[in-house]
Write a structure and sequence with these properties.
Blueprint: H1 2-20, E1 29-37, E2 43-50, H2 51-58, H3 72-79, E3 85-89, E4 93-95, E5 98-107, E6 122-129, E7 132-139, H4 148-151, E8 159-165, E9 170-173, E10 191-197, H5 198-202, E11 207-213, H6 218-255
Parallel strand pairs: 1-8
Antiparallel strand pairs: 1-2, 2-5, 3-5, 4-5, 6-7, 7-11, 8-10, 9-11
């Protein structure tokens, strides 16, 4: 039983870690920024990345040799800045001989995210325009050094992704399928993804994210609908009680 429990826990750990970066639940990304945006501009950002990708793409000082000890606090120190707060650094997992890590970050104002060194390759804009909200992000040059592909066993076909979880109904976006270059639809959870091959990302070919959305969040609308339904139900119940009481009084008068 102990061995069985240990096996189940190990399997769950692998599923959760690989699932965050694609894994058995979808594509496997070498580097992924997964941004959950609120209508007030605050956000939660989850980075799933191989350690070599953090070095080659962002120039971060992390160990790429699998035999070197991994220190979560070293990763935390790189991502914790005046405009970001690291909530959690995961234990590393391995894929194709490379170690991967997940960093979960609170972002008080997404418009200032580019001030943090790990995300300085992007310019962020978010706010109301012409009666709705617009999010823009342009991802620019990487920290690539010559030989990056060969150094880490990449062939360049690996995929990098920038994913957005949007807070309100999407009116327009520029997300396209990586292979067909056709416009894509938001997936369940109001999620859009912009993907790029690692070779193109290393060379700094820009990624342009653009989303136009309603200014009222889905949660806000849902709460109002729920509140309206609740008030309507109370009014109907009150009318039924009033009608029953009035009917009772009329019957008493008739009996007298």
């Amino acid at each position: 039983m102990i061995r069985l429990a240990a096996s189940v826990l190990a399997a769950l750990s692998i599923l959760s870690s690989t699932g965050c970066g694609g894994g058995i639940f979808g594509k496997q990304y070498e580097y992924e920024e997964d941004l959950s945006l609120a209508i007030d501009g605050s956000a939660t950002l989850v980075v799933n990345s191989s350690l070599p990708a953090l070095v080659a793409l962002r120039g971060l000082a992390v160990p790429t040799d699998p035999s070197v000890r991994f220190e979560p606090n070293d990763i935390r120190a790189l991502f914790d800045t005046p405009v970001t707060h690291v909530r959690r650094v995961s234990r590393p997992w391995r894929r194709k001989g490379r170690r991967f890590v997940q960093v979960r970050i609170d972002v008080p104002d997404v418009r200032r995210l580019g001030e943090a060194a790990p995300f300085a390759w992007s310019k962020y804009e978010f706010g109301p325009e012409s009666g709705h909200h617009v999010y823009r992000q342009t991802v620019g040059t990487s920290a690539m050094k010559p030989g990056s592909l060969a150094n880490y066993g990449w062939d360049g076909s690996e995929v990098v992704a920038f994913r957005l979880h949007l807070p309100s109904r999407i009116l327009h976006h520029t997300a396209r399928d990586l292979e067909t270059n056709q416009p894509t639809e938001a997936s369940r959870g109001n999620i859009l993804a912009w993907e790029q091959h690692l070779a193109d990302r290393l060379e700094g070919q820009p990624v342009n994210l653009l989303v136009e959305m309603e200014s009222q969040s889905i949660l806000h609308r849902t709460l109002w609908l729920f509140g309206g339904a609740f008030v309507s139900a109370v009014l109907v119940l009150s009318l039924l009680i009033w009608w029953a009481m009035s009917r009772g009084k009329d019957q008493d008068v008739a009996a007298a």
